[in-house]
């Protein structure tokens, strides 16, 4: 379980991972050394998995976003298909979902032609993939990787 101070530290780091340790300490009312110790403990426990930099996809000509609904054959090895989907270029997310569909896959690319090649050459070619439905994103209003943390979550 996580105490209230550690939750505050996690919230601060999710908003801005590069915030100086001294600033985190000031915000939570602890010494910088105590904050550093807590952060290291959270990393060791696997609660903090890593730190990321968010890049502007337009700068790298990766503004096209699409979600693919990938259906598999009845006897397909969904674990293997999930792993293969995850290693495909331009794939950002792979989710195994309940219902008729097996996977929802988020891809990002430069153009419709690039997306078509990805689907045709890299995804349809995976053994066990039965069909793919593609939804192109027109506008994104919210996209984040932060985990919502509410007061009371995991508090000891």
User: What kind of oligomer do you see?
Assistant: single chain
- Summed up, the helix count is 5
Share of residues in strands:
15-25%
Task: Give the neighbour order of strands across the main sheet.
Answer: 2-3-1-4
Quick check: average pLDDT?
Answer: 91
**Helix content, binned percent:** 25-40%
Main beta-sheet annotation: 4 strands, antiparallel
- Rg computed from alpha carbons, rounded to a whole number of angstroms: 20 Å
Q: How would you spell out the order of helices and strands?
A: HHHEHEEHE
Low-confidence stretches: none
Summarize the structure.
The protein has 156 residues and is α+β, with helices and mostly antiparallel strands.
Describe, in plain words, how this protein is organized in 3D.
The structure is a single chain. The protein has a four-stranded antiparallel sheet with strand order 2-3-1-4. The protein has five helices and four strands. By secondary structure, the protein is an alpha+beta fold. A hairpin with a 6-residue loop joins strand 2 and strand 3.
List keywords for this structure.
single chain; 156 residues; alpha+beta; 4-stranded antiparallel β-sheet; 5 helices
């Amino acid at each position: 379980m996580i105490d209230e101070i550690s939750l505050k530290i996690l919230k601060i780091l999710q908003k801005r991972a590069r915030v100086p340790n001294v600033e985190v300490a000031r915000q939570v009312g602890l010494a910088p050394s105590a904050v550093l110790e807590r952060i290291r403990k959270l990393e060791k426990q696997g609660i903090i998995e890593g730190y990321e930099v968010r890049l502007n996809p337009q700068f790298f000509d990766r503004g096209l976003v699409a979600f693919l609904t990938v259906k598999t054959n009845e006897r397909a090895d969904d674990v293997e298909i999930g792993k293969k989907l995850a290693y495909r270029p331009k794939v950002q997310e792979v989710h195994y979902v309940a219902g008729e569909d097996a996977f929802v896959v988020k891809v990002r690319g430069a153009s419709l032609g690039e997306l078509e090649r990805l689907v045709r050459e890299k995804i349809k070619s995976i053994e066990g993939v039965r069909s793919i439905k593609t939804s192109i994103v027109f506008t994104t209003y919210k996209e984040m990787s932060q985990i919502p943390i509410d007061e009371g979550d995991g508090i000891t």
